[in-house]
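Example (one chain per record):
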Amino acid sequence: MSVIEEVVAKIEDWKGNDISIQPLSGGLTNTNFKVDVDGIPYFVRVPGESTELLAIDRKNEYYNTKAAGEAGVAPRILHHLPEYNVMVIEFLNGKTMSKETLGEKGMPTRMAQAIKKLNQGARFFSDFNMFRLTEYYLRLCSERGIKIPKGYDERMETVKLIEQAMSVRPLPTVPCNNDLLAENYIDDGNQLWLIDYEYSGNNDPTFELGNTCQEMQFNDEQIAEVCAAYFGEAKTDMIARMKLNMIMSDVGWGLWAAIQAKISTIDFDFWGWAIERWGRAEEKMDSNEFEGWLMDVKN
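Predicted structure:
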C-alpha cells in the first residue's frame, strides 16, 4: 500500500465513503494529491524523501499553516497525521498562478495585499533567516560532497556586507511564507490565497517581498508597485532592501536547488536551476547599483 493509500485509510471520517485519489503535478519537494470523498475534494500533500536535509521543520509548518488559515490567507487544515507528516487541507477551487499571470496589470498590487494580510496575522512558531539558512546549506554541501556552482565561498564576504547593511536599521519581523513562487498563489476570483508553508517563519517583510519579486522576475516598475502597495509608497530604502533580498533569495535557494539535484527523485532540472539562480545573484552583486542599495538601506 502506498503512503497516500495508507493516509486515506487512516482518516476515520472517510471510512466507508466513495474515495478517488488523483496525483497533482507541480510539487518540487513533495507529492501532491486531490482526494475526492463522496464528491468533495481535499488537498493532501505527502512529503518527499530526505526533506529534513532542506531544513524543513514539519512541526513549524503545521503550526504556521494553521495560523495562516486563521488569518484568512491560506486554506484551513482539516486533518493532520503527524506520523506521516501529512496534512489534509481544504481544496481551493481557483487558478494556480504562473509568472505570466502574476505579471499582468494590477497583479503586483494584489500580491502585496495578500502578503500584508499574512504579515499582519498571528506570529509564527519560529523565525526564518536566509543568511543563517545559507550558512547551513553551505555546511551541508561541504559535509556531504554536494556540488555547488563555482564562486559561492568567495562571495560570502559580499553576503556579509548585505547582512551588515540591512542590520543598521532592521525592520520588525512578521509572519512570512518565505517561498512565494508563482505556483504558491491561488486566485479564486475574489482573493489571492498563499499556500505551502514549509519555509515559513517570522522574518523581515522585505525578504518576503523581494523573494517573490525575484521569483516572478519583476522589472523595476513592478517592484515599485509591490513596494507602494505594501508600504503606501515606493520608498527608496525599502526598494533597496527588497533588491538586496532578491540577491539573497537566489543565493539561498540556489543552494537549495543544488542539494535537491543530489537528493530529489522528482523529475526536474534542479542543477540547471541552481546555475541560473547563482548567475542572477552574481550579476546583481556586480551591478553598478549594488553599492547604492547598501547605502540606501543604512540611511
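Caption: The chain has eleven helices and ten strands.
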